[in-house]
Write a structure and sequence with these properties.
It is built from 24 helices and 25 strands. By secondary structure, the protein is an alpha/beta fold. The protein folds into 2 domains: 234 residues, Spore Coat Polysaccharide Biosynthesis Protein SpsA, Chain A (Alpha-Beta Complex), CATH 3.90.550.10; 301 residues, Spore Coat Polysaccharide Biosynthesis Protein SpsA, Chain A, CATH 3.90.550.10. The N terminus is likely disordered.
């Protein structure tokens, strides 16, 4: 807030995802501002040139660099003319308050640093907003005082820069500390198409010092009231932000809202999301007057030209004087006075949607805004769905966006020199956590895991992993947290997340309930070479078996496994409930096979395979239980992958309690009906995409 927050953190969510972010060449320039008639250089070389320690060698280096910089400047002028970045930049206006200007032209910048701390938010698909011209300058005003506020401003500015496409002009009302910190920062942070003006906050104190304020922001918490007087007279509109705001979209989208103002609307504000102004937070709570819940001033759109014509200065002063006769002081600084003025003049306000200022603090209704934004981001896709469809929830799940935290724990990977490395890919939820140590003991190669967890479960997993010597000793395991949302287990989304973030040329698509045979990692790497996977479209099948025993003496060889099959300790996977899933593997042939052999696709085939990393993704329409792997194998087949069974490889499924999704499948008739519908739609999509090649799947389904 001003440099000193209101005791609540706020998050500014987006209303529309970026269509594109233009790539601009960042090059070094000498640029600066003028102070006392002397140029203030942004290059450390110039300041060094006046030092006694500046040597003749350094002088030659500087002259050489200056020649190069002049050449670069000539090239860059042409670029700037094309982009018109300099258009519309009004000179800083003093208006009785000393102002300093810093203009950051094209520079190198630090793109990685620029992205630090940025919060990715929801984008909104709500109504089309007027387009902001590509080179129109967007003006942003921020009140900032002290060390902590200066640090907050950096985070705010980074978030704005991360998404912006337009030139920016920051107007910083700052005390001497903040100005010293931020002036240095902006001089050394050579960001393109950004101008910064400083206004001395200490010179404005007399304008608001007569207002008693109990808020800890102190006198700086009142300075947004005098922006019409402080900012340049020819500045028509400005976005005013508290320092604890984080942007999650292009600020041009908020700037475009000015075009929606009508009549005498001069203030754009979001409704306050707490009950503060309702006066019911505690006994004898007496807030300042406000319309309903009142408005929050963490984000304000100000039409400065109209406010000046309305005599805003006189309006807010008279209101404050009148209310202070009874209230004695403000509790929320400028926000109380803004709301008192609006109470008397409601026509002044254009109410912004809540996602432009999501207020994160106690006693707020911000979670309601989250639901609103979540609905908005899905609006376009869901508008095409029929809510009366009995399978609506299944279809909706395909468009759900799940918050994802990649590499939740430390990850290191050293690429294999022979380019044969294979990553084991799997997904799991909290109830399968106990399998992790066993898998790590059986598979020494890299692993990519997608974990479907709630926030609380993610912390439990963190404690579990940190307490496990086995897991902490392995740095080649990538743990990717996909946070829970919706009623279905998004199994194929999880698989896609794990697949997408592997570092090896090949991947073993497994499930968390399987233990690979000892030595499978090295065997697969040799098979990759033997079968020339790099240059052919093959899917190497690892035959799957299962045991019903929770304690199993794991077979150390194929001969041992065959013996356990004969004794009834092991079985071919799902032979007793879903024979078709793995029957095409031809286990009878595998028993005696010594070389890899090819098998043909059959209906409902769902083996576990090793493929190149560029293989198709899993289809997200299949959630929970049923057809999630079958559809993927079908897509591999239609893309002409060969299915090759490895003669000396195996994996064993370990017993566990039935999952919630398989229970729903078995007990819920509508669940099974919807799964059948999704299968038919998938096959129709296959026919549209692959034409004649996909007809056999319809025939196979009808004959099965």
């Amino acid at each position: 807030m001003l440099g000193i927050c209101r005791g609540r953190r706020k998050f500014l969510a987006a209303s529309l995802s970026l269509l594109c972010i233009p790539a601009i060449t960042w090059i070094y320039l000498f640029s600066g501002s003028f102070e006392d008639g002397k140029p203030v250089s942004l290059s450390p070389l110039e300041s060094q040139a006046h030092s006694p320690r500046y040597t003749a060698s350094s002088q030659r280096e500087r002259e050489s660099l200056e020649v190069r910089m002049r050449e670069v400047e000539e090239e860059n002028r042409a670029l700037r003319r094309q982009l018109s970045l300099a258009q519309g930049r009004a000179p800083a206006h003093r208006r009785g308050n000393h102002s300093k200007t810093y203009s950051m032209e094209e520079g190198t910048g630090d793109s990685e640093n620029l992205r630090a701390g940025i919060v990715a938010g929801n984008s909104s698909e709500c109504g089309q907003q007027p387009v902001v011209e590509k080179c129109e300058t967007i003006h942003v005003a921020i009140v900032c005082a002290g060390y902590n506020a200066s640090r907050d401003v950096v985070t705010l500015v980074k978030s704005v820069l991360f998404h912006r496409r337009n030139p920016l002009h920051f107007h910083l009302i700052a005390d001497s500390i903040a100005e010293q910190i931020l002036a240095t920062l902006f001089q050394t942070w050579m960001v393109p198409a950004v101008r910064v003006d400083f206004y001395n906050a200490d010179e404005l104190k007399s304008e608001v010092s007569w207002i008693p304020n109990k808020h800890y922001s102190g006198i700086y918490g009142l300075m947004k009231l005098v922006l019409t007087k402080t900012l340049p007279a020819n500045l028509e509109r400005v976005i005013v932000l508290d320092t604890d705001i984080t942007f999650a979209t292009d600020i041009a989208e908020l700037w475009a809202v000015f075009h929606k103002f009508k009549g005498q609307q001069v203030l754009g504000l979001v409704e306050n999301q707490s009950d503060w102004y309702l006066g019911n937070l505690w006994k004898n709570h007496r807030p300042w007057p406000a319309l309903g819940r009142g408005y929050n001033t963490g984000v304000i759109l100000l039409l400065l030209d109209k406010l000046r014509k309305m005599k805003w200065e006189q309006m807010w002063r008279l209101t404050a004087e009148r209310e202070l006769m009874g209230m004695l002081s403000t509790s929320l600084a400028d926000q109380d006075i803004f709301n008192a003025v609006i109470k008397q003049n409601p026509f002044l306000v254009y109410q912004l949607p809540c996602f432009w200022n999501v207020q994160l603090s106690d006693h707020t209704r911000s979670e309601q805004c989250y639901r609103d934004v979540s609905d908005l981001k899905l609006q376009k896709q869901l508008s095409e769905l029929d809510e009366d469809d009995l399978c609506y929830e299944f279809r909706r799940e395909r468009f759900t966006v799940h918050r994802t935290h990649l590499y939740f724990l430390h990850y290191e990977y050293e690429p294999a020199a022979d380019s044969t490395d294979v990553t084991l890919v799997a997904q799991l939820s909290m109830d399968r956590l106990q399998m992790l140590e066993a898998i790590c003991k059986h598979w020494e190669g890299p692993i990519s895991l997608a974990l479907y967890l709630s926030d609380a479960e993610a912390q439990q997993f963190l404690r579990y992993a940190q307490g496990s010597e086995v897991l902490m000793s392995r740095h080649n395991v990538g743990y990717h947290i996909v946070y829970k949302e919706g009623q279905f287990y998004p199994v194929n989304l999880l698989r896609n997340v794990a697949m997408k973030h592997i570092s090896t040329p090949y991947m073993f698509l497994s499930d968390i309930d399987f233990l690979p045979m000892y030595g499978l990692y090295e065997y697969l790497r040799k098979s990759v070479i033997q079968l020339d996977l790099a240059n052919t479209k093959k899917a190497m099948i690892v035959p799957a078996f299962e045991t019903l025993r929770y304690r199993l003496s794991f077979p150390k060889s194929k001969a041992e496994l065959l013996s356990m099959l004969d004794m009834g300790t092991l079985f071919t996977f799902r032979y007793h409930v879903w024979t078709k899933g793995h029957a095409p593997t031809n286990f009878a042939k595998w028993r005696t096979a010594t070389t890899p052999y090819r098998v043909e696709w059959e209906a409902d085939f769902e083996p576990y395979v090793v493929v190149r990393r560029d293989c198709p993704e899993y289809d997200r329409r299949f959630v929970g239980f049923g057809w999630n792997k079958v559809a993927h194998i079908m897509e591999l087949d239609v893309q002409e992958y060969e299915f090759i069974v490895l003669p000396n490889a195996y994996m064993i499924h370990m017993p566990h309690a039935p999952s919630f999704d398989i229970t729903k499948f078995r007990s819920n008739k509508q669940y099974r009906i919807c799964l059948k519908t999704l299968k038919e739609e998938f096959q129709q999509d296959m026919s549209r995409r692959y034409g004649f090649a996909a007809l056999k799947y319809l025939t196979a389904e009808n004959n099965s």
